[in-house]
Every structure is written in structure tokens, then in C-alpha cells.
Design goal:
The chain is built from four helices and no strands. It has 115 residues and is mostly helical.
């Protein structure tokens, strides 16, 4: 028995707790800041609302298919893929500020053209 009457949790559980914390922390930081950032970017309050609600609408639509994926492949693979997609999406915020929109689509256009 550990100090608090329970055994030490497995390393995998600690990794899941840490990743869930950082994913939630990211949303917890972005959501309160976005209305102020909207004023800086010159977008309306309505557009800020659309941006904030897009996350919830996507979750509403994606939860059932995600549940089916978890039932089919187990929890680990969809979890890791989801974290990877979220990391790439977060990187997209940085790229969007530094790269003009047309330039950011050029690699995708080249890849589609070669197929």
C-alpha cells in the first residue's frame, strides 16, 4: 500500500492523465482568450461565437463515430491518433499566422496533382 492507502498508479495511467490535462489546459487557455483576440483580429463577436461553437458541433457529430472506432480498435490507437491530430491542428495556428493562406495549401495541391 502506498502513502494514501492505494498502490502507485501504472505509468500508462499517469501518461493518460498528463495528456488529458494538457489537452484540457490548451482549450482552457484558448477559449477565454479568443473573444479578446477577436477584437485584435478585427472579427465580429458573431464570428468569435461561430469559432467557439465549432468545437462543440464537431464533438457532437464526431462522438458516435469515435465510439465506434474505440469499440473496433481499442482505446489506445484512436487516443494517440486524436492527440496527434490535435497537435497538428495546434501547430496550424502558428503556421496560419506566419504563412499566407495560398502558400499553406501549395504542398497539398502538389501532392494531389501527382496522384
Amino acid at each position: 500500500m502506498g502513502r494514501f492507502g492505494i498502490d502507485r498508479p501504472p505509468t500508462v495511467l499517469l501518461a493518460v492523465i498528463a495528456s488529458t490535462f494538457f489537452v484540457g489546459f490548451g482549450g482552457g487557455v484558448v477559449f477565454p482568450i479568443l473573444p479578446n483576440l477577436g477584437a485584435v483580429l478585427g472579427i465580429s463577436a458573431f464570428m468569435v461565437g461561430v469559432i467557439l461553437s465549432a468545437n462543440r458541433w464537431v464533438r457532437l457529430v464526431a462522438n458516435a463515430p469515435a465510439g465506434a472506432l474505440v469499440d473496433r480498435y481499442g482505446t489506445r490507437t484512436p487516443f494517440v491518433i486524436g492527440l496527434f491530430v490535435e497537435g497538428v491542428a495546434t501547430l496550424g495556428y502558428v503556421v496560419a499566422l506566419a504563412v499566407p493562406p495560398a502558400e499553406s495549401l501549395r504542398p497539398l495541391a502538389r501532392r494531389c496533382r501527382t496522384r
